[in-house]
Design brief:
13 strands; 7-stranded mixed β-sheet; binds zinc ion; Metallo-beta-lactamase, Chain A; alpha/beta; 237 residues
Length: 237
Amino acid sequence: MKIESLASSSSGNCYVIDDGHNKLLLEGGIPYKELVSKLNKLHLKITDFVGCVVSHSHNDHAKAMKDISRFILVYASVETLEQKYVKGHTLKSARRIDIGSYQVISFNTEHDCPGSLGFIIRSYKTGESLLFLTDTKYIKFNLRNFKFNYVMIECNYIDSILDEQEINFALKKRLLNSHMSLTTCVKTLKSFDLSECKEIYLIHLSDHRSDEQLMKKTIASEFGIVTKVCKKHGGYI
Ligand SMILES: [Zn+2]
Ligand SMILES: [Zn+2]
């Protein structure tokens, strides 16, 4: 499975998944024009995708959702579809659905936005599976029975940076209650079966409360798995 990041941060998220048979868009959180131009650079167009899966209605994940839905089917929870006035296919927690050559299982995440979902995406073509987990302070489900070949997981902030910063109480409370810290990211990854994991992608880093090198080093040395940190405007380090 090939994974491309077009954007990854609190200002915009969009990823391309390709199993060599079908291409799937994950999140539509950048302006539609920007999406088209980024796809162009990869010699892709929106109609090349079998669908677009969106985790929740916050703009950094769903900004272009309505425009995308004019060309391909958008998949999201009923809350997300209603919030963005988009006609699409409804995803329900703990249900599976086929999208082209992929099977997608959705599950509820812990975020300050109703209808937020995470996804387990398996390719029928390659037999590989991918976990996509973002905008969640932790995960309440035990996913140990799955073997993930790829993990895309939020690593939003470093606890000590958050502690040192003089930020207002409301913002601090919001971060703690809705986003994943490096510590929780390590703990969450430890709860998975990563025996066949090839790559870990750290996504949705905070601009001011993260450290991409430290995060990459921490995860790579803890798990001994190739770790890529998705950059704000696309690509990874
Ligand atoms: Zn977000
Ligand atoms: Zn969000």
